[in-house]
Design goal:
Layout: H1 3-15, E1 23-24, H2 27-31, E2 41-47, H3 51-60, E3 64-68, E4 72-77, E5 80-87, H4 90-98, E6 100-104, E7 107-111, H5 114-127, H6 132-145, H7 151-160, H8 164-172
Helix pairs in contact: 5-6, 5-7
Length: about 180
């Protein structure tokens, strides 16, 4: 079993006790939406009400917290990374509630929608414009899922961050 799969298998039993089960986001979530790329860490969206419980769980598994804020937390254990995004805004809470059990390379896991993943990737780019991999992830999500994406929702995310021009450019690109 891969290192990432081992990490996830360690936390899944404890996740089942949370009020709202966490959902996979970021690099590993891409695979559930037909986009494959390498990643070095595990990322989950967690209800903000469960932040303390998940924090305690990760510490009990020998992770060290290297950053923790109202919005996110980052943990390391040797060369393993485990990142949390906290759902406390209405949009993130809705994405967490609506996450579906999907097949991933690491087994069946709750994963946020492709539209929601695009929204998180866009937010990351807006927070740090040097994150070119996130733009590429958005591009690949749009290409792989164009026929099934709820484009009005995708456009709302781009409007929220005042990046409608970027969406138009990505949609105009040839495959």
């Amino acid at each position: 079993m891969s290192r990432l799969a081992d990490q996830i298998q360690q936390v899944l039993p404890a996740f089942s006790t949370l009020e709202t089960p966490p959902a996979l986001v970021c690099g590993l979530a891409l695979a559930a939406h037909k986009v494959i790329r390498a990643t070095r860490d595990v990322d989950f969206l967690v209800a903000s009400e469960d932040a303390e419980r998940v924090h305690a769980l990760l510490l009990s598994l020998d992770y060290q917290c290297v950053h923790r804020s109202e919005d996110a937390a980052n943990y390391v254990r040797r060369d393993e990374g485990f990142d949390l995004l906290y759902a406390h805004r209405p949009i993130a809470n809705a994405l967490l509630r609506e996450a579906l059990l999907r097949e991933t390379p690491l087994g069946k896991l709750r994963v946020i929608s492709a539209e929601g993943l695009i929204g998180f990737k866009l937010q990351a780019v807006c927070n740090d414009p040097s994150r070119s991999q996130d733009i590429e992830d958005i591009r690949q999500l749009l290409r792989a899922n164009r026929a099934v994406l709820e484009m009005s929702q995708v456009r709302r995310y781009f409007e929220l961050f005042e990046r409608e021009t970027l969406l138009d450019e990505l949609l105009a690109e040839k495959e």
